[in-house]
Design a protein that fits this description.
Length: about 400
């Protein structure tokens, strides 16, 4: 299991380092580029993932009771950035906007990533519109989503002036970092071929801190997936959703996908499982002093007494200025109750700890990474959260 979490995952650890927070990743305006190429012959969903985490992955979740099978793309945090399901529905996001957005307080909270819950249960863009109108999605305060189905119809959903905005279209369209390129290319009505899609993606690549880590094209009719995963390169790997789903739940590290495809399927880590809290069980805690220390960090965060010496310099730099913003998100969880070790792993000189953490109003699966000097290097409270009955 990899050590590095996305900036979102790192910031989510603020949740109990300085009080829980759901804070969007720092991002330039219009990071990422997404677009749909469509005509009567086909429909392609195309994306450039512009992100500072090079540890990128694709993973597969077969269908189950009440949900469709799907492929997801993202990084080792397990929080999908985009995906494709067996019904030919696909999504991805562009972050970097800033909108006034407060979801209706009567809408239900969802476990895990709302976009993944949407892809598991929706077959068309109309289904997706209903989903986002009837479930909470805090991400609309800083991002917009593009969803397309196998007909080539698409919808852009976001927030404007505190209201949910829904823009449907049946033609090729897109937005994001490569907007100028899209404004030139898409009016020419390029045929929906992988070659045309990749040419536009290549012209929309970004460099710098938010370099394009991978490009993906989903064929919404055939379920074929095309990946271009090395920054600055044109190396292509092709997969098929139905074929991969027959191999069961598994994942590939994109930089090593060729070698890994030749081996046995790699089981999903906890961060990529659907509802990991349903699967974990307590294990012997052979380092009670570590658990005691981390409990102290969490409770110190509750009291506003987080200490820089508990964190790596990079982690502290990311979270130390967020106390005020995070305090408003602390109250719904209620008082800290307990934490129980459920999994532990080692890799690259770092140690990862998964805890089932109980609060008065919720149960959370928390992931914390310590470096070789026992400093907190990364963490993620939101691996999975279950709200208790009656929690407000």
């Amino acid at each position: 299991m990899k050590r590095y979490l996305s900036p979102l995952g790192r910031l989510l650890f603020v949740a109990f380092a300085v009080g829980p927070a759901v804070i969007p990743p720092a991002a330039p305006v219009h990071a990422c580029t997404i677009f749909v190429l469509t005509d009567t012959s086909g429909a392609l969903f195309c994306n450039n993932e512009d992100h500072p985490n090079p540890k990128t992955r694709i993973w597969f979740q077969p269908a189950g009771d009440g949900y469709y099978g799907a492929a997801y793309v993202g990084c080792d945090s397990g929080w999908a950035q985009g995906g494709l399901n067996t019904e030919g529905l696909a999504f991805d996001w562009v972050a970097g906007t800033k909108e006034t957005w407060e979801p209706d307080p009567h809408l239900p909270y969802l476990r895990g990533n709302p976009s993944q819950r949407m892809l598991e249960t929706c077959a068309t863009i109309d289904d997706a519109i209903v989903f986002f109108r009837t479930n909470r999605e805090p991400g609309f305060s800083y991002a917009r989503i593009l969803v397309a189905d196998r007909t080539g119809n698409s919808v852009i959903i976001g927030a404007k002036d505190g209201q949910l905005q829904v823009e449907k279209e049946d033609q090729s369209r897109g937005f994001g970092f490569g907007q100028r390129t899209l404004d030139v290319a898409l009016p020419e009505r390029p045929e929906p071929t992988v070659a045309n899609g990749f040419k536009i993606l290549r012209d929309c690549r970004q460099g710098g801190d938010y370099t394009t880590e991978y490009s993906n094209i989903f064929d919404l009719k055939s379920g074929d997936v095309f990946l271009y995963f090395l920054p600055g390169c044109n190396d292509q790997v092709g997969l098929n959703l139905a074929v991969e789903l027959k191999r069961g739940a598994h994942y590939y590290d994109l930089p090593q996908i060729r070698e890994q495809r030749a081996g046995a399927p790699r089981p999903l880590p906890l961060t990529m499982k659907r509802f990991p809290l349903d699967e974990v069980k307590p294990i012997p805690d052979r380092e009670p002093e570590v658990t005691a220390r981390l409990r102290g960090v969490i409770q110190g965060g509750d009291a506003g007494a987080s200490r820089g010496e508990d964190f790596t310099p990079d982690m502290w730099r990311r979270i130390s200025g967020l106390k005020k913003a995070s305090e408003a998100h602390r109250k719904p969880f209620g008082d800290f109750v307990s934490m129980t070790l459920v999994e532990r792993d080692d890799e690259g000189g770092q140690r990862g700890y998964y805890y089932r953490t109980e609060f008065a109003n919720a149960t959370a699966l928390q992931y914390i990474v310590l470096d070789g000097q026992n400093k907190i290097a990364a963490g993620n409270l939101w691996v999975d959260v279950v709200w208790k009955p009656g929690a407000n």
